[in-house]
Amino acid sequence: MQKAPVIAKVDLLVIGLSPNAVRIACDAASAGFQVFATTDYPYAGEDVAAHFETFTDESPELHHFFPEGGPASPNELKMRLEQALIRHGVSFLYQAHPVSALFDDNAHLSGMLFADRTGFQAILSRVLLDGTETRRALDLAGRFNRCAFCQSPSFIINHMGRQVPKGTIDLGKSVHTENGEYSLWQTTHQFKTNASEVPIFPQWPFHEENLATLQAWSDGDVYHSDFPRIAGVDLPLMGEFRPTLECPAILPEEEQYLPALFELVPHKSAPHAFGQNASHQFAEHLPGVQLVRKDTPIRYEDSQEFIEFELSDLVENVEETDVLVVGGGTGGAPATIAAARALPTKEGAAPRVICVEPLPVLGGECTAGRICCYYYGNRVGFTKELDEGITALGSNPEFTVEQSTKNIQWKEQWLLQKCV
């Protein structure tokens, strides 16, 4: 049995930091409600910033935070939203993944269990607002559990570079930076599905997403979407649902329900709203496998209240592989490539290697960390192959093989290409 510290008891728990969700969180805090916000991204404004839509999205939500126009970049959006949360006294966590809904003794939704890099934490709340793109929180709460694909869904990726490549959609806009002027364009990648309806998790088409990133890239790219936006997917609600005492959960578009919900749901001091014995939604046990945890949590050690749960109850699906690489950074990405090359293959099948990486790119410090040049060391073996491969990706490389600096976009692309 595992224990997760209860790190907050609030009126409103916001999961997913879209601009609209951040606005509602700030408004609720200004009205005197206690609010906690989380996202599984490393920044706020994910539904716009992650897809590099700061130049194409002209929604009222963005105008609320940028009445003067803008934002001028994804970083400006992230910073403005984060500052708004801080200014309104809203506590928030980045890279916190919702893994199980919490219910009180009366089977009423009362919060969420989260997993992050330091362990598990529980947040208890009167009302839950789901601002995630995939409606993950509502899925866990039992309000919504399927997405429907059209016959030809596609991934959309926005790009910035010096020249619009042929065969792409010219967005007709340009960006001025200290390094010059860049054009904006868009690429699409269509893929086929085997069913009209599939669960959001675990069958999200991650491999197709990687292929889309590979096929969309050109050697003129200076910046592109962290993650593609998927088009042709309908995320319906289950029937004619309305928030109730049993399931006080809403989407940002349903903001009109908030005042009534706060009246409907008992205040946080009510015993049944935050029962000591709050339980979570059990998944089917994993046959033949016992999940254990050997590390010691390093955060919230002073918490006075805990939620007990079984790790096995959180498993939704199982993947089998020959090699699992945890982390696709400066060591993990080469290890993934090396493992796939070294493993013996069965007839007609490639070796099965899975690399899990929380960031949108491979390479760790040498890509996402923007450390794009070497310090000391002999550049031989895989490093030599990497340098030669990066330089050969395009017709006009920015740096030669001999130079210690490398183009970060090209390095990301080469590592992904080899892993795929």
Largest sheet, in brief, is:
9 strands, mixed
End-to-end Cα distance: 38 Å
Poorly predicted tracts of residues: 197-202, 268-283
> Which percent bin holds the helix content?
10-25%
Q: Average pLDDT value?
A: 84
Tell me the number of strands.
17
The coarse silhouette is globular
Number of helices: 10
Structural class: alpha/beta
Rg value? 23 Å
- The amount of beta strand, in percent, is 25-35%
- Secondary-structure element pattern, one letter each: EHEHHHEEEEHEEEEHEEEHEEEHEHH
Oligomer: single chain
Summarize the structure.
This protein has helices at residues 19-30, 46-49, 60-65, 74-87, 136-141, 206-216, 258-264, 332-342, 382-391, 408-419, and strands at residues 2-15, 35-38, 91-93, 97-103, 109-116, 119-130, 147-161, 169-177, 180-190, 197-198, 221-224, 229-234, 249-250, 279-280, 306-309, 323-326, 353-356. By secondary structure, it is an alpha/beta fold.
Supply database-style keywords:
6-stranded antiparallel sheet; alpha/beta; 420 residues; globular
SSE topology:
Elements: E1 2-15, H1 19-30, E2 35-38, H2 46-49, H3 60-65, H4 74-87, E3 91-93, E4 97-103, E5 109-116, E6 119-130, H5 136-141, E7 147-161, E8 169-177, E9 180-190, E10 197-198, H6 206-216, E11 221-224, E12 229-234, E13 249-250, H7 258-264, E14 279-280, E15 306-309, E16 323-326, H8 332-342, E17 353-356, H9 382-391, H10 408-419
Could you describe the 3D structure shown?
There is one protein chain. The chain is α/β, with parallel strands linked by helices and 420 residues long. It has 10 helices and 17 strands. The strands form 3 sheets. Strands 1, 2, 3, 4, 5, 6, 13, 14 and 15 form a 9-stranded mixed sheet that branches. Strands 7, 8, 9, 10, 11 and 12 form a 6-stranded antiparallel sheet that branches. A hairpin with a 2-residue loop joins strand 8 and strand 9. Helix 8 packs parallel to helix 10 (408-419) and helix 9 crosses helix 10 (408-419). The protein is globular. It starts with a strand and ends with a helix. 36% of the residues are buried. Residues 197-202 and 268-283 have low confidence and may be disordered.
